[in-house]
């Protein structure tokens, strides 16, 4: 049983030479249950989809916030709603398909039906039959709606929260993240290219650490390093919002010196200068953004990563299935006004990312081998690179944003430190 | 010689033979053979059925030349980190759907079992192959192989092609 529970003399290990993360945070079912209540069901905005996934009136998408099934809809007035996918009668799934187009949401169990904003519109046998049965006289439709969440849409990204008190989405994200989202999603209409789903046998927070970790990116991912898509020697930064919930990690390819890199990485397995592509079309992309930034990994607490790697653009949504299981849903996108060649580049560079991706498949392995190794143990990990404190870094040899993530996590869970 | 001159039994024999060689090289760690079973200009696409059902073309793997297939193999051998594993492909229900003078269309179903380092074997993926097969210098080769997988939820990662 975890000692990381409030009011139980909880202790988070402290060390002078950096930051420690007790492994039980990746294992403990009670912490997992509290995360569902205090993070995914608490004062946080979770990503649920792109407006481009539900372009027409009546479109719906079934997804999750953490472990909780939700429905995202667009009604005849264009209004986007998010509600629990749980019938107000006796709790059945209302949408049993991942997506579709409907006029009403109807639960199959006893055919209660709801409009696209989740309001109960009809109940069979409400008045009984032949004067028998039926609902109580004081039964009111509008007290049995689906549980509707607060929704905000930012540049085509839909976020929802069950919290009535959490600040506006824009405040929650902070100006740096808002402008970074605008950079990728602000000016042009997004076009969905397709999804990839990756089921990971690890705790979701291992992935939260992974995407806030520029230290591993050129060491674990040889493909990144060898082809200069990402190296820790490149110009870049690892920045957090004021609350340290979110991280923006970026790099500019071709800002490092090939000769210097050869020296820096000379003993490193992941720098294989002899490895050449026999079909270079895979990496023949286009420069898309004027700022020269070629790689962006934005980690938005709790369940979203937005990425730009070369010409691949994607959102990755984290859905949890237990302390040891989560699914990563990658939705790749481009822009509706991409020309045919650009669309082709994005589809081809998709070989780089996702569960089969030449640069990203290793993250599945990284999550897996940590979860396997910590089974049954106490003990703690160590974060020291860059100083072991939650600070912004104008370089890429740091783990500081991971420390920021944990400090924010501690405050969400009310863990005494 | 036009492929129309082959009898249905002969065609099926050649297609089956190619499919068998295909899965043997993938399953017995002879990945370097895999690209040689394709024509120089070719298309290999491994795509989730949930994408094709929505008319979306995003694939898990998408190679449009034999050198690109080779690059995938070289990367798996020298660059990528993944758990050592092996597959067994089981192919069934082959049908020849069309015969042109220079190519044959064939469809079949597959199941792939994966064995990891702990020795547990799990059903990893099911799906279908839709192939265009041509002959070059008397050799039967894939001109196009579209692999559409049912198993949209990829377990951990996908390294070796299907
Ligand atoms: S549970 Fe939905 S109508 Fe009864
Ligand atoms: Fe990574």
Please describe what this structure looks like.
The complex is a heterodimer of chains A (417) and B (162). Chain A has 417 residues and is of the alpha+beta class. Helices cover 22% and strands 26% of the residues of chain A. Chain A contains nine helices and 19 strands. Chain A has helices at 29-40, 169-185, 204-210, 214-220, 222-226, 258-264, 340-349, 361-374, 400-413; strands at 19-22, 46-50, 59-65, 68-74, 80-84, 99-101, 105-106, 113-114, 120-122, 150-154, 157-161, 190-200, 235-240, 247-252, 295-300, 304-309, 312-322, 325-335, 380-383. Chain A has a seven-stranded antiparallel β-sheet with strand order 12-18-17-16-15-14-13, sandwiched between helices. Chain A has a four-stranded antiparallel β-sheet with strand order 5-4-3-6, with no helix packed on it. Chain A has a three-stranded antiparallel β-sheet with strand order 2-11-10. In chain A, strand 10 (150-154) and strand 11 (157-161) form a beta hairpin. The longest helix of chain A has 17 residues, at 169-185. The two termini of chain A are 18 Å apart. The model of chain A has no long low-confidence stretch (mean pLDDT 93). Chain B is of the alpha+beta class. Chain B has helices spanning 8-27, 49-52, 66-78; strands at 38-48, 61-63, 86-99, 104-115, 121-136, 139-149, 153-155. In chain B, strands 2-1-6-5-4-3 form a six-stranded mixed β-sheet. The longest helix of chain B has 20 residues, at 8-27. The two termini of chain B are 31 Å apart. The mean pLDDT of chain B is 97. Strand 12 of chain A pairs parallel with strand 7 (153-155) of chain B, so a sheet runs across the interface. The structure holds FE2/S2 (inorganic) cluster and fe (ii) ion.
